[in-house]
Amino acid sequence: MGNEPVMLDSPSRIQEEHLNRLGAIAGIENVSSDDYSRLKYSSGKTAEEAISLRQGIPGKTADLVIHPKNKDGVKKIVLYCNEHGLPVYVYGGGSSVILGFLPVWGGVTLVMNTHMNRVLSFSETNQTITVEPFALIYRKRKDGTESHVPL
Fold first, then answer.
1. Which of 26, 132, 135, 5 is nearest to 77 (CA)?
2. Long-range contact list for 5-12, CB < 8 A, 24+ apart?
3. For the chain, how big is the Rg over CA atoms in Å?
4. What pTM, to 2 d.p., does this model score?
5. Whole-angstrom Cα distance, residue 117 to residue 73?
6. Distance of alpha carbon 105 from alpha carbon 120, whole angstroms
7. Per-residue pLDDT at 80
8. Could you give the CA distance from residue 23 to residue 32 in angstroms, rounded to a whole number?
9. Which CATH class is domain 1-115?
10. What is the pLDDT of residue 11?
11. pLDDT, averaged across the chain
């Protein structure tokens, strides 16, 4: 149970022209409309969502999932979607704390934690660090294993 192939009842409604244009912006390897990706980035980690998925009730799903590479890519994608009336949702860590990434109108989900996870600069003088949205720090635990936590 839980290892079944993901198959949604509703196909992606994204038009081919939008898929191609957004693929040109983000890189076609960073754009997907397969059922697994659409469901994975349309669900979070709450108990309610886990139970629904176990029961085969997927809920609303995005039509297209994009993993932007940088801030400029996000800007171009959002401008394009706005111009063409495509709803945009942002998937961060998927915690579902505020349910803000649930794609109630379909559209496009931007997955921010795939590529945008680097440290951009560090200033010893100012003791500041500039990071992309999902940069992680690694810690050594007392038992010698490593863990990562968001900055």
1. 26
2. 6/35, 6/36, 6/39, 7/35, 8/35, 8/38, 8/39, 8/58, 8/61, 10/61, 12/38, 12/63, 12/64
3. 17
4. 0.82
5. 14
6. 34
7. 98
8. 9
9. alpha beta
10. 92
11. 85
H helix runs in the chain, sequence order: 16-26, 35-40, 47-54, 71-83
User: How buried is 113 (Cβ within 10 angstroms: 0-12 exposed, 13-18 middle, 19+ buried)?
Assistant: middle
Both tokens of 118, joined, read 């680097």
pLDDT digits (tens, 9 = 90+) for 17-29: 999 999 999 999 9
Q: Where do you find CATH 3.30.43.10 in the chain?
A: 1-115
Cα dihedral sign, 7-15-31-41: negative
CA distance 55 to 69: 34
Q: What is the pLDDT of residues 40-87, one digit of tens each?
A: 998 877 778 878 878 888 889 999 999 999 999 999 999 999 999 999
pLDDT of residue 74: 97
Closest CA relative to residue 79, chosen from 25, 27, 118: 25
pLDDT above 70 covers what percent of the chain?
84
